[in-house]
């Protein structure tokens, strides 16, 4: 589903385990499960636990550090990027895992109703 290298997934899960958000069990029926209070953990907490990767795909260019035009554009945009990142981190701090779980549950129920009304019996 993630379409990424398993090492990336293991590293990500290790960061979450280190913070006590998940735990793993080995063997048949094992795997990962949440081990935290969903009402207390936010998306910002998760972001920090996985190493605080870059939030914005767009950022300052550094292909030609000596280029005066590049320097001027970077200087003009830096404050905007900083403000956007600050706002995004703030909003991530407002979203708990409990909120996500509740929203997901509503969507699952709605999808089930939708499929039943269309005559589908399986996903």
From TrEMBL:
A Pfam family assignment: Rrf2
GO CC annotation, single: cytosol
Recorded superkingdom: Bacteria
GO function term, MF aspect, one: DNA-binding transcription factor activity
Gene coding for it: ywnA
Protein name, per record: HTH-type transcriptional regulator YwnA
PANTHER family: HTH-TYPE TRANSCRIPTIONAL REGULATOR YWGB-RELATED (PTHR33221:SF15), WINGED HELIX-TURN-HELIX TRANSCRIPTIONAL REGULATOR, RRF2 FAMILY (PTHR33221)
InterPro entries assigned: Tscrpt_reg_Rrf2, WH-like_DNA-bd_sf, WH_DNA-bd_sf
Protein species of origin: Aureliella helgolandensis
